[in-house]
Amino acid sequence: MFEFNDQELESLPLVEAALALNAAIAPSTQAIWVKHQLEQMTADLKDALAAEPNDALRLEGLLRIFYKEWGFQGDNNQHFSSDNTFIDKVLERRQGIPVSLGALLVYFGRMLDLPLSAVAFPTQLVVRADWPGQKPVFVDPFNGEFITERVLRGWLVGHKGPTVQLMDEDMEQSDNATIIGRWLAVIKSAYLREEDYAGALRCSELALWFSPDDPYEIRDRGYIFQQLDCDWVAVNDYEYFIEQCPDDPAAELLKIQVKVLTAQEPTFH
């Protein structure tokens, strides 16, 4: 189980918090190997950029090494693969998605004493650099390119509609708990797409450890139980959601589903 409370979670680098999350979901996660890799890669970065005193140029050097020399890139072919959400797999494959690549980028930046932070932007994770006396600079961790506030607003419009306004809070540094919560949801979605319902169930149970009474997560867990042929357990979760969210459009559909499931013989495992 993920054993960190909020205070401990915030004291960790984001990538280490993510690694702990990965290990809680998949015990086969190569946590020790990852830590060794991060140490070696950090040493290589410091050697390569030791002669560059300018922060902005060191950031450009980090981006060059990370994306060009090391070959990290966004996974355009299997964007929703669960491999893109586990730090050890991302390090092995040199491919990931914004949240995993961004966590690594922020980690290496901090090791270089660069003022980088992670922003849980509504559409994806974005890396932010804060230079003293200047406006913040943003990087898309999917490809390492600098992005403007105009681009961010365009992403937001595509996500929420043409009337939405880009607010300062959309671009502020996010705490680890917020990012880890979204990361967990991404892993669960990936497992569901891959029909790995046992993995999805571990994600759902972990999410409920953070928010034990979340009716939407309990509804999702019910769906997973149903896919695992645990119909009567699924019914309990569906009924909880119906009771807690009677006006949600899904409640009426789930009432029908409950009738179908309770009319069947129970399956025992």
UniProtKB/TrEMBL annotation:
It comes from the Bacteria. It comes from Veronia nyctiphanis. This is Protein SirB1 N-terminal domain-containing protein. Belongs to the UPF0162 family. Residues 34-184 form the Protein SirB1 N-terminal domain.
